[in-house]
Amino acid sequence: MRKINEIFYSLQGEGFHTGTPAVFIRFSGCNLKCSFCDTQHEEGCLMSDDEIMEEVGKYPAATVILTGGEPSLWIDGEFVDRLHRAGKYVCIETNGTRLLPGNIDWVTCSPKQGTRLGIARMDEVKVVYEGQDITGYEQLPAAHFFLQPCSCNNIGETVDCVMRHPKWRLSLQTHKLIDIR
Ligand SMILES: C[S@@+](CC[C@H](N)C(=O)[O-])C[C@H]1O[C@@H](n2cnc3c(N)ncnc32)[C@H](O)[C@@H]1O
Ligand SMILES: Nc1nc2[nH]cc(C(=O)O)c2c(=O)[nH]1
Ligand code: SF4
Ligand SMILES: [Mg+2]
After folding, report:
1. What is the third-level CATH fold of 2-176?
2. Does residue 45 have a known ligand-binding role?
3. CA-CA to 116 of 20 to 30 Å: which in 16, 124, 125, 126?
4. Strand partners, 89
5. Nearest CA to ligand 1 atom 27
């Protein structure tokens, strides 16, 4: 059984796959307590893999996004395989502090200040900008680097930071801008 906060269908609002329709599986709980966290993830229900697959199967998109909370607390390679057997492309949103199954298709790592990374493979880095030095993140083994305003509140400073650090691209939380989930 895996503890699920919510399963919903929307568009990926952030980062490389922005605009892509996707089923979001939001797992419950997290190993960090970021002051800026925009998600209520503590509540949840234990669901079997059969129940999760039935819910995911209600939506037509191939992309599934594992998020939370911190999804690494609840997933394993067997669960990712199950999604693959259903034809799904499996993405994860993770804070990067915990090991991940090796068979995930797309890893979005959002490192948090004061934490140590526990993963060696990632496809994109997505940093929530709070005015911190971002140059240290540029050595991470990702192909894409995104800087995301915090709760859409510091867009000007984030744009300015990206223009000073051109390895990065702006990621807006587009779902908040157009008021979808
Ligand atoms: C809610 S987290 C869940 C996944 C994982 N715990 C993580 O932090 O990557 C999903 C994404 O939202 C970002 N995020 C959380 N709170 C935010 C905020 N207030 N403004 C912008 N992005 C935020 C996180 O950094 C992460 O990239
Ligand atoms: N539309 C939409 N896109 C998202 N991308 C990452 C999200 C998350 O909370 O992990 C998220 C979310 O909550 N909604
Ligand atoms: S790691 Fe992610 S889910 Fe956990 S508190 Fe931070 S932003 Fe929220
Ligand atoms: Mg979100």
Report:
1. TIM Barrel (3.20.20)
2. no
3. 16
4. 63
5. 110
19 backbone φψ class: left, alpha, beta (φ>0; ψ -120 to 50): left
CA 112, distance to chain mean position in Å, is: 13
d(CA 100, CA 80): 11
DSSP 88: P
Ligand 1 binding pocket includes 12 (Cβ within 6 Å): no
Q: How far apart are CA 178 and CA 128, in angstroms?
A: 20
Residue count (the chain): 181
Copy the structure tokens of residue 18: 């922005």
Can you give the residue ranges of every domain in the chain? 2-176
What is the pLDDT tens value at each position of the chain, 181 positions in all? Answer: 999 999 999 999 999 999 999 999 999 999 999 999 999 999 999 999 999 999 999 999 999 999 999 999 999 999 999 999 999 999 999 999 999 999 999 999 999 999 999 999 999 999 999 999 999 999 999 999 999 999 999 999 999 999 999 999 999 999 999 999 9
